[in-house]
Amino acid sequence: MSRPSWRERVDAARAQRAATSRVRVRRTVTHRDGARCLVDGRSLLNFCGNDYLGLSQHFAVVGALQDAASREGAGGVGSHLVCGHHQIHDALERELADWLGAPRALLFGSGYLANLAVVQSMLGDEDVCVQDRLNHASLIDAARLSGCRLRRYPHADAEGAIRQLRSMPEGAAMLATDGVFSMDGDIAPLRELALVARVQKALLYVDDAHGVGVVGPDGRGSVAAAKLGVADVPLQLATLGKALGGYGAAVLGDADLIGHLAETARPYVYTTALPPAQAAATLAAVKLARTEHWRRTKLDELTGRFRDRARALGLELMDSQTPIQPVLCGDDARALEMAAALEQAGYWVAAIRPPTVPEGRARLRVTLSALHGVADVDGLVETMAKVRDRIRLGMAATNWREAALVR
Ligand SMILES: Cc1ncc(COP(=O)(O)O)c(C=O)c1O
């Protein structure tokens, strides 16, 4: 028998990651206080989370969690179809459906699971899922797991989407896109995609993990911002762990499709229900997200300020109007070096490298929150520019020395 050694395989993969600046390490937070957190003993301003509206520590949200946990316990106890479904889940589903203008909502343990659920329960081997090239990994994995044929089109290219759908006229079709792209921050051309889906009889599914709460009227997300409804977008995803500050997700849309998911989606049927206390926390968060418009106004102001200042200092921005404001570095090692230097200066910004983003597109993914102040944003931008200049100078010195040695 000549089976490969697992240890050698894992060691080789790690060595390969190390050689290409792709090692991933996790950091340990010991305390969170608003936008500040204590990370491995150092106090940092967090510019890499997804708590856009600043609700994760809101007293009403935390209070709802504590109240419900003291009455109902900490866990989910069982799956929804056995004994885990609680009236708090019903209340949250109704509130989300009312907010986002959908006939029905269904809760999931996470956005990742919800995406697996939607694609797996709607598509089989004979079918096709057409996706934007920059969609979130969970949508890509969902299509792979469902066994359907997966085709990808160039980013935000509705023409590309229709070409792919036309080339596969057999089988049921789904057109799936992020609403707000998680690593780029731009918004999908949803009106054009809705037209493509209608013409091609494809089900348009919008993963609005980063849009709900943040964009659109009353924070109703990118589908509402595009003035589309359930007739155009029969299913959409809202996550509860980003702008809503909690954990979990909901799929919203056409009542029959949601009913089908509830009975057939394996990541719904074969897993423990979201703890009711967590649902209670999100219920409180949705009420705040619907009514406290100042949080979105502040985010918009901070986003505009970040962009103006970063542009003035020559940082390479992407075409994003949302609180996701990536700054391109290109080179993986440079992105890591910049993130490390920012951390030394007290700012926590994540260096995002392939395969999360395409090759040569490594970036610092800056995310803004209503918890940030104007001075925080100004300080970050100035420090980013200084760090970039220092690294550039260092590189220029190294290149000069190398050139001298060669000569
Ligand atoms: C676009 C998008 N979809 C889905 C998910 C998965 O959501 P969750 O973190 O709730 O699993 C994420 C999370 O990073 C995301 O960015």
Average pLDDT works out at 95
**Numbering strands along the chain, what is their spatial order in the largest sheet?**
4-10-9-8-7-5-6
Q: Provide the helix percentage.
A: 40-55%
Question: Could you give a short account of the major beta sheet?
Answer: 7 strands, mixed
Query: What ligands can be seen in this structure?
Result: pyridoxal-5'-phosphate
CATH topology tier name of the largest domain: Aspartate Aminotransferase, domain 2
Beta percentage is 15-25%
Pattern of helices and strands: HEEEHHHEHEHEHEHEHEEHHHHEHEEEH
**Count of separate structural domains:** 2
Q: Which structural class matches the secondary elements?
A: alpha/beta
The total strand number stands at: 14
Helical stretch tally: 15
Fourth-level CATH superfamily of the largest domain: Type I PLP-dependent aspartate aminotransferase-like (Major domain)
CATH class division of the largest domain: Alpha Beta
Q: Termini distance?
A: 54 Å
Shape: globular
Q: Looking at the chains present, what oligomeric state does this protein adopt?
A: single chain
Throw out a few tags for this protein.
407 residues, alpha/beta, Aspartate Aminotransferase, domain 1, Aspartate Aminotransferase, domain 2, 2 domains, four-stranded mixed beta sheet, 14 strands, globular, binds pyridoxal-5'-phosphate
